[in-house]
From TrEMBL:
Chain intervals for the UniProt region annotation (Disordered): 1-45
UniProt-listed PANTHER family: CALCIUM-TRANSPORTING ATPASE 9, PLASMA MEMBRANE-TYPE (PTHR24093:SF520), CATION TRANSPORTING ATPASE (PTHR24093)
Biased composition (Basic and acidic residues): 12-33
Keywords: ATP-binding, Calcium, Calcium transport, Calmodulin-binding, Ion transport, Magnesium, Membrane, Metal-binding, Nucleotide-binding, Translocase, Transmembrane, Transmembrane helix, Transport
Protein name: Calcium-transporting ATPase
Localization in the cell: Membrane
Bilayer topology annotation: Multi-pass membrane protein
Enzyme class, UniProt record, top EC level: translocase
Taxonomic lineage: Eukaryota, Viridiplantae, Streptophyta, Embryophyta, Tracheophyta
NCBIfam families: ATPase-IIB_Ca (TIGR01517), ATPase_P-type (TIGR01494)
UniProt EC number: 7.2.2.10
Length: 1042
């Protein structure tokens, strides 16, 4: 189980890097007491599932085309190859890079859209590429010291360590030409020809091709080229059509997945350019850039530490060792692709793209998008069961037809026996046996629903593309369908339920309420000076004042921006203050302690320690306060008043932040470096400077979104680090709490109270919790575990690095695209791009839509299977012939597997989906309503087709036709056409399994209408122009029937 250190907020990612933990396996086993160990397809959780389990269901599946069936599942063999490749790159990075550069120089091309500049010698810079790359790659501290450290190196790279490089496009181009771009060549995706090759690997199609070749040879030999090619040629054409349509559909899906993968890789990062903090794509980082780093960030390129405080890097993604490395001037080298586990710092970029080990690694391995989903596994089980039944039926039909043929019970349309012992030639008998064998093989093609598991991929690909438009980026396929089963959402408050647009609206200095809050005239200059000092230095934000006198630009987190804006209005001179004091030590904001501190040495050698954090927690550490006149006062008598002020602000849904400081004697500061690095800033005897109330309004529409969730049987729980009163006020405003009377424990609870409970008590209390205030990331993890053990399917939102364990543990982890750290995003299953709770509700709709669409396709496909198998079996047993020949069955299979899946798997979600309860993990795929529809429709089709088969000549007035062969061809044409029309209209039935009006809303689904129309037109063309291919009469013949 992943853990979070309560001491310094350091995130331990070992278990997430190493794979599924034993604890997690035990939890999953605990959650599935009904799981059948003998059933390899009974896997309710594919997230973090053991490899043995994934291997077991693959071996149990009945598969005709493994390369196609398992294309979008995890390639277990490649996973091990990828790990071996990583180890080899770490050991031989320099050789691999040289080989890659040689290959690129020879090819002069890479995948379109990912340009990689071939680096050349330094030229405009006083250091060459190879010198820079080798120093960073080999961590040569001596070489860095020869360049006079990072300061000297910045001079060689023409970089200002405080302001960064200029945003001049010409300068950026020079840097890319000299040192390369931060991109790497990617393995090309499969071409359309590769998909064609894979589509014909189907075992039954290969057998049919062989049978067609035999039939073609025999036909030409016995009937001549002009007439003899029809039989084999028609099968060849049908197989070719199936392969092309299948490959085209698969290729389109592949392109969609490639586009989504590109979105996931395109990380937005912050860099300093021209003195301002700007957001750019990770691909636009160049050598010489100055990059601020904070907890949760991904190191975007190789570099050297400029300044850092408590900076700890998780290098497990590169070194393979699960340990955190602390960075300082003795260990200043940073590797691309690693994560910031703790602390803050800035780095100078010295290597990008394939000049980094991370770039080499990414260029050398192909990203495998394959992954299991529970529905995929279950549908493979269904497909295997149906396939076994179909195989048994095909073998039975083959045996019956062969027995009837060789015993002389099979007759041609004119009533003559087809096989007469001693008279029928071996050549004729062989030709007839090939036809019988072809029919049996084609029955297998129809009966084994290869398209059933792939329909999941089709609907997921469609849903993922549409979800991007709804501001949700899916990182793991399984999350799409699991979201449809979600029974509870544990949501953050800030930025998810609220707008994340923060403003200081109230301020207390001592007992005095400053109104308006930024009116500095009500404060003594010494108070303003200390407030400005604390805000400017104890912040991860930045203030940029344009030289031309334009508007001040403030960057940072929403809370930081709100406090910096307030201080600027008070008269804070950001650059001046930062230049007048030196930062000695930093305690980065910690979600466990909910405060952050900084030690400053002033120009007069005084040391100030400034703290900023949750108001009631900082207040508890204060012994005095500074009043608005700048006088120090004892806080003992005023604490109750200040607590009441905090509660009043919190009740008004304000986030309360306190600012405090204290003097620190020089003797208290450790002198030796080792002790200094471990120095814990004193946080007692503080002097309170101010308490501010920050307003963060609720998002418009969030109340409606919460109500939609409640109506859909999904309980919304708020889990926030804010004051319990603030949490309560926001919960009432959002509709999470229906009334103030509900706000009693344990409905509303503090994190510390919940974590103090025993494991058994937590399971009982978790169900009742609606709001958890003052919670830590570990409290959120405990809540998720307790809810899952209670049988809930849990979705969790998170944005911080310390949220990673909860996101990883939840059934569905939802990270925030705007405020979320890279660690949180990598631990999540879906990224909410606009940080909006309404987008979470849309994800639930799509999750339920995936499940509903698959059920529609199952109903449609099983109806076709039952009807086709019954009609052929009954006809074969009774008359020794089948009304649907191999070419016709292949056309039906094309309608069913590819076009049917495309039509039904792409139905958009409806409002009706959100009026149902969540889909249970073990709810049967085929519901009672589906069985009813399936059996009635199959019975109807079988009745119509058998009636046409046995009484067709009478119904069509063909009994007196002198040409019996002509009469049978017309009858079989009618049966085939009736069968196809039944399937086209059955697609309408399958759209609305639970509604009487199956045409409702059909005109709004243009893709469905287009596919149905396309299928109908193809059927007309087939029967009108391909008479010989189908051995049937044209539509004109049918319409002339009397």
């Amino acid at each position: 189980m992943s853990s979070v250190s309560s001491g310094n907020g350091l995130l331990h990612l070992e278990d997430m890097e190493a794979g599924p933990s034993k604890d997690n396996d035990d939890l999953n086993n605990h959650l599935d007491p009904d799981a059948d160990p003998s059933n390899p397809f009974d896997i309710a959780h594919t997230k973090n599932a053991p490899l043995e389990t994934l291997q077991r269901w693959r071996q149990a599946a009945l598969v005709l085309n493994a390369s196609r069936r398992f294309r979008y599942t995890l390639d277990l063999r490649k996973e091990e190859e990828k790990e071996q490749r990583k180890r080899m790159i770490r050991a031989h990075a320099q050789v691999i890079r040289a080989a890659l550069l040689f290959k690129l120089a020879g090819e002069k091309q890479i995948v379109p859209g990912t340009p990689v500049a071939l680096p050349v010698a330094g030229g405009d810079y006083a250091i060459e590429l190879e010198q820079l790359a080798s120093m960073t790659r080999d961590h040569k501290l001596s070489a860095l010291q020869q360049y006079d450290g990072v300061k000297g190196l910045s001079g060689l790279l023409r970089t200002n360590l405080e302001l960064g490089i200029n945003e001049d496009e010409a300068d950026l181009l020079k840097r890319r030409n000299a040192f390369g771009s931060n991109t790497y060549p990617r393995k090309k995706g499969r071409s359309f020809w590769r998909f064609l090759w894979e589509a014909w690997q189907d075992l039954t199609l290969i057998i049919l091709i062989i049978a067609a070749a035999v039939s073609l040879g025999l036909g030409i030999k016995t009937e001549g080229l002009e007439e003899g090619w029809y039989d084999g040629g028609s099968i060849f054409f049908a197989v070719f059509l199936v392969i092309v349509v299948t490959a085209t559909s698969d290729y389109r899906q592949s392109l969609q997945f490639q586009n989504l993968s590109e979105e996931k890789r395109n990380i937005q990062i912050e860099v300093m350019r021209g003195g301002r903090t700007v957001k750019i794509s990770i691909y636009d980082v160049v050598v010489g850039d100055v990059v601020p780093l904070k907890i949760g960030d991904q190191v975007p390129a190789d570099g050297i530490l400029i300044t850092g405080h408590s900076l700890a890097i998780d290098e497990s993604s590169m070194t393979g060792e699960s340990k955190i490395v602390h960075k300082d001037q003795k260990e200043p080298f940073l590797m691309s692709g690693c994560k910031v586990a703790d602390g803050v710092g800035t780095m100078l970029v010295t290597g990008v793209g394939i000049n980094t080990e991370w770039g080499l690694l990414m260029a050398s391995i192909s990203e495998d998008t394959g992954e299991e989903t529970p529905l995929q596994v279950r549908l493979n089980g269904v497909a295997t069961f149906i396939g076994i039944v179909g195989l048994a039926v095909a073998v039975s039909v083959l045996a019956v037809l062969l027995a009837r043929y060789f015993t002389g019970h099979t007759e041609d349309p004119n009533g003559n026996r087809e096989f007469i012992k001693g008279q029928t030639t071996v050549e004729d008998a062989f030709n007839d046996v090939v036809k019988i064998f072809t029919i049996a093989v084609t029955i297998i093609v129809v009966a084994v629903p290869e398209g059933l598991p792939l329909a999941v991929t089709l609907t997921l690909a469609y849903s993922m593309r549409k979800m991007m438009a709804d501001k949700a980026l899916v990182r793991r396929l399984s999350a799409c369908e699991t979201m449809g089963s979600a029974t509870t959402i544990c949501s953050d408050k800030t930025g998810t339920l609220t707008l994340n647009e923060m403003t200081v609206v109230e301020a207390f200095v001592g007992k005095k309420k400053i109104n308006p809050p930024a009116d500095s005239s009500q404060l003594h200059p010494s108070v303003v000076s200390l407030l400005s000092e604390g805000v400017a230095q104890n912040s991860t934000g930045n203030v940029f004042v344009p030289k031309d006198g334009g508007d001040v630009e403030i960057s940072g987190s929403p809370t930081e921006k709100a406090i910096l804006s307030w201080a600027v209005k008070l008269g804070m001179k950001y650059d001046v203050i930062r230049s007048e004091s030196t930062v000695l030590h930093v305690f980065p904001f910690n979600s466990e302690k909910k405060r952050g501190g900084v030690a400053l040495q002033l120009s007069d050698s005084q040391v100030h320690i400034h703290w900023k954090g949750a108001a009631e927690l900082v207040l508890a550490s204060c012994s005095r306060y500074l009043d608005s006149n700048g006088c120090l006062q004892s806080i003992d008598e005023e604490k109750d008043y200040l607590k009441a002020a905090i509660d009043e602000m919190a009740t008004s849904s304000l986030r309360c932040i306190a600012l405090a400081y204290r003097l620190c004697e020089k003797e208290e500061i450790p002198t030796d470096e080792e002790s200094f690095n471990r120095w814990v800033l004193p946080e007692d005897n503080l002097v309170l400077l101010a308490i501010v109330g920050i307003k963060d309004p609720c998002r418009p529409g969030v109340k409606d979104a919460v109500k939609i969730c409640m109506d859909a049987g999904v309980k919304v729980r708020m889990v926030t680090g804010d004051n319990i009163q603030t949490a309560k006020a926001i919960a009432l405003e959002c509709g999470i709490l229906s009334s103030a009377e509900d706000a009693t424990e344990p409905t509303i609870i503090e994190g510390r109270v919940f974590r103090a409970l025993s494991e058994k008590e937590r399971e009982q209390v978790a169900k009742k919790i609606t709001v958890m205030g003052r919670s830590s990331p570990n409290d959120k993890l405990l809540l998720v575990q307790a809810l899952r053990k209670g049988g809930d399917v849990v979705a969790v939102t998170g944005d911080g690095t310390n949220d990673a364990p909860a996101l990883h543990e939840a059934d569905i982890g939802l990270s925030m695209g705007i405020q979320g750290t890279e660690v949180a995003k990598e631990s999540s299953d879906i990224i909410i791009l606009d940080d909006n709770f309404a987008s979470v509700v849309k994800v639930i709709r799509w999750g339920r839509s995936v499940y509903a669409n698959i059920q529609k396709f199952i109903q449609f496909q099983l109806t076709v299977n039952v009807a086709a198998l019954v009609i052929n079996v009954v006809a074969a047993v009774s008359s020794g012939d089948v009304p649907l020949n191999s070419v016709q069955l292949l056309w039906v299979n094309l309608i069913m597997d590819t076009l049917g899946a495309l039509a039904l798997a792409t139905e958009p979600p409806t409002d009706n989906l959100m009026h149902k309860t969540p889909v249970g993990r073990r709810e049967p795929l085929i519901t009672n309503i589906m069985w009813r529809n399936l059996l009635i429709q199959a019975l109807y089709q079988v009745t119509v087709l058998l009636a046409l088969n046995f009484a067709g000549l009478s119904i069509l007035h063909l009994k007196d036709d002198g040409n019996r062969a002509h009469a049978f061809e017309v009858k079989n044409t009618v049966i085939f056409n009736a069968f196809v029309m039944c399937q086209i209209f059955n697609e309408f039935n399958a759209r609305k399994p639970e509604e009487i009006n199956c045409f409702k809303g059909v005109t709004k689904n243009y893709l469905f209408m287009g596919i149905v129309g396309f299928t109908f037109i193809l059927q007309v063309i087939n029967l009108t122009f391909f008479y010989y291919y189908y051995f049937c009469f044209s539509w004109a013949v049918m319409f002339d029937l009397r």
